[in-house]
Design a protein that fits this description.
Blueprint: H1 3-12, E1 16-21, H2 27-42, E2 46-51, E3 68-70, H3 71-77, E4 85-89, H4 99-105, E5 110-115, H5 121-124, E6 128-129, H6 136-147, H7 153-166, H8 177-187, H9 193-202, H10 206-217, E7 220-221, E8 227-232, H11 234-240, E9 262-269, E10 273-279, H12 287-293, E11 297-298, E12 302-308, H13 311-326
Parallel strand pairs: 1-2, 1-4, 2-3, 4-5, 5-6, 8-9
Antiparallel strand pairs: 7-8, 9-10, 10-12, 11-12
């Protein structure tokens, strides 16, 4: 059976379906689960999205039908006694959904990953995982088509937003002709690129611009200018009153540098941890492998990891390791 056939078979045999995504979701994970939930409801399925925490406020506009609840609300209201199928979007690791969600998922008769991240071939043979997709939302669009459900604006906007986020506005090498065909189909529902872009990127306060200016003014490179990086401190986020999630796109400003091969962001998070994000737009550079070597993972063009320690020491250690890895290309 193909990935899509596996998906169709499990959905056809299920009536109560729980959808979730990774614990700190981005627009691709959120958009994919919401769109699938709406499509399944159009089919007459009892479907609901349950995440470890409430939907981030910045993405609430994607949830027009209020599909997403957190585990506390789900358990309190007893919305679904029996779960025929649990669909996990934008990850292929059960450990990434959060402890409380994992308890719910393991109650399901069947579990299905819908994802585009690299994984062992044995896992992809049992799930709906396609690493050739630029975003999970691209794959989900094809799945909704396969279900025979017609797209509308409420379904299309979360999917389009997921694709924007996971392709960094179509700049990554994973973008294909099929990606644009999917986008064309989504736009035919009446959504507009300007609205989708402004909702996810364009509604910022002046404090956001000032923080961006400060961070970019302190950006650094190695002596060959092949590695460029930014550091984001908790005290700066507090001073400028900017949410940490609103700094995720800062790294993209480094990708325009002439000689840069790898762009990095080092951001302080609670608990003495440093979140390291890696980006590259070059086909021959695989930052996913680099992130794995640093204890994380991701795609060849976009990846991340967490390392405990003081930010200055973590930066120095990480840049040294990336420099050594670049010599292997």
């Amino acid at each position: 059976m193909t990935n899509i056939e596996i998906f169709i078979d499990l959905v056809s045999r299920s009536q109560t379906i729980l959808l979730t995504t990774h614990i700190y979701p981005d627009a691709d994970g959120i958009g994919s689960q919401i769109a699938l939930c709406l499509a399944l409801r159009k089919m007459g399925k009892k479907a609901i999205c349950v995440n470890q925490y409430n939907l981030p406020e910045r993405y609430s506009y994607l949830d027009s039908d209020e599909c997403v609840v957190d585990t506390k609300e789900f358990n309190k209201t007893k919305m679904m006694k029996d779960i025929d199928l649990a669909i996990i979007t934008d990850t292929n690791s059960l450990m990434r959904v959060g402890v409380e969600v994992e308890k719910l998922v393991t109650r399901a008769e069947n579990i299905l990953f819908v994802d585009h991240h690299p994984c062992p071939k044995e896992l992809s043979a049992l799930h709906c995982i396609n690493t050739k997709m630029a975003a999970t939302a691209e794959l989900v669009t094809l799945l909704i088509n396969a279900l025979g459900v017609s797209l509308n604006k409420d379904i299309a906007l979360p999917l389009y937003t997921g694709i924007i986020i996971d392709t960094s506005s179509f700049r990554y090498p994973t973008v294909t002709a099929n990606t644009h065909l999917v986008v064309s189909q989504l736009m035919q529902t009446g959504i507009t690129p300007s609205y989708a872009y402004n909702m996810v990127y364009g509604t910022k306060k002046i404090s956001h611009v000032r923080l961006l200016g400060k961070i970019l003014s302190q950006s650094q490179t190695d002596r060959h200018e092949e590695i460029a990086w930014l550091t984001i401190l908790e005290k700066d986020l507090k001073e400028y009153q900017v949410d940490a999630e609103d700094t995720n796109a800062f790294i993209n400003h480094l990708l325009i540098l002439d000689n840069v091969k790898v762009a990095c962001t080092f951001r302080e998070i609670k608990g003495g941890m440093i979140k390291i994000s890696l980006r590259s737009t070059l086909d021959e550079i695989d930052v996913g492998v680099m992130a794995q070597a640093l204890g994380g993972g991701g795609h060849n063009h976009s990846a991340a990891t967490l390392i405990e320690g003081e930010i200055e020491k973590v930066v120095a250690m990480t840049i040294e390791k990336i420099s050594k890895m670049l010599k292997t290309y």
